[in-house]
Amino acid sequence: MNILFMGNPPFAAPSLQSIARDKQHKVSVITQPTKQGRGYHLSPPVIKLLAQRLNLPVYQPFSLNTEEGITLVRNLQPKLIVVVAFGQILPDEILSIPTFGCINLHPSLLPKYRGAAPIQRSLINGDTVTGITVAYINSKLDSGDIILQKEIKIEPYDTGDSLADRLSQSGAMLVMESIELIKAGNATRIHQDETQVSHAPKIRHEDSLIDWQRSARDIFNLVRALNSASGTYIMVGGERLKILTAEIVEECGSFEPGTVVELTKDGPLISTHDGGLLLLTVQPQGKRLMSGYQFLQGHRWSVGMKLG
């Protein structure tokens, strides 16, 4: 089958590898344009680099919502389009091109968590179960008929990175199973229940700011959800301090939320609405990652200090 794969970040890599490994498919790839990274160096998308290693033709149109983008897809003559974390909404003109339609791997149990940040939102909300869905793509975001779904347990210390990795691996298997069902004409089309819809909007900058008035569990969930590039943060002395990993401390005395309760061998312990949070890994503004203990060696924090 002639398959056109569309994807961009590392989450999409296992699916592309699985599809390319099946030699009965002719695979071409579309990914986002190369962007300028740190130090003005060009930073190609992970999927472009992977496609090149797999000797697959790869294209990087500025947008598929243009005549040029639509013509590119039409000329590739795909029988099926597979989308995994591509980052662009496909226009109707492209959706109508492949004989077998367009399918998408989404990291939630649709119709729950439609949108850009389902992995992070599931962790922020303290969910214990999430999942993956392969569904047909239509003109409305993440609302197409479902082909397959699989539940995935969220472990107590899962982070946004670790959960994304497990979902991407399981998702690749679900994508391959869906392709086989489509080829055989046996793919189901389960309509999504619109009464059960919830949304997972993109994480905004202000969502990452820690509010010590919240519970220790809520703050811990926020930290682990955003532990990768963005990270949660607090402002100290006018500078940002990222918090990358932390640990809940159930009992830490009666202190106003945001108070430095103790300077431990693992890092500073900060009071919250109902307990405390031990800061294990941090990153001061403009500096490298470091342990909470290393941070304390170079910064004059004291017990009773109030954080914003």
From TrEMBL:
Boundaries of each Formyl transferase C-terminal domain copy? 202-300
Q: Can you state which reaction this protein catalyses?
A: L-methionyl-tRNA(fMet) + (6R)-10-formyltetrahydrofolate = N-formyl-L-methionyl-tRNA(fMet) + (6S)-5,6,7,8-tetrahydrofolate + H(+)
Kind of enzyme, top EC level?
transferase
Q: Record's SUPFAM superfamilies?
A: FMT C-terminal domain-like, Formyltransferase
Any one GO molecular function term: methionyl-tRNA formyltransferase activity
List the EC numbers from the record. 2.1.2.9
Q: At the top level of its lineage, which domain of life is listed?
A: Bacteria
Any one annotated GO CC term = cytosol
What CDD domains does the record point to? FMT_core_Met-tRNA-FMT_N, Met_tRNA_FMT_C
All copies of the Formyl transferase N-terminal domain together span 1-175
Sequence positions that bind (6S)-5,6,7,8-tetrahydrofolate: 108-111
Keyword vocabulary terms for this entry: Protein biosynthesis, Transferase
Its annotated function is as follows: Attaches a formyl group to the free amino group of methionyl-tRNA(fMet). The formyl group appears to play a dual role in the initiator identity of N-formylmethionyl-tRNA by promoting its recognition by IF2 and preventing the misappropriation of this tRNA by the elongation apparatus.
Q: Which family does it belong to?
A: Belongs to the Fmt family.
Name of the featured protein = Methionyl-tRNA formyltransferase
Where does this protein come from, organism-wise? Candidatus Desantisbacteria bacterium CG2_30_40_21
What is the gene name?
fmt
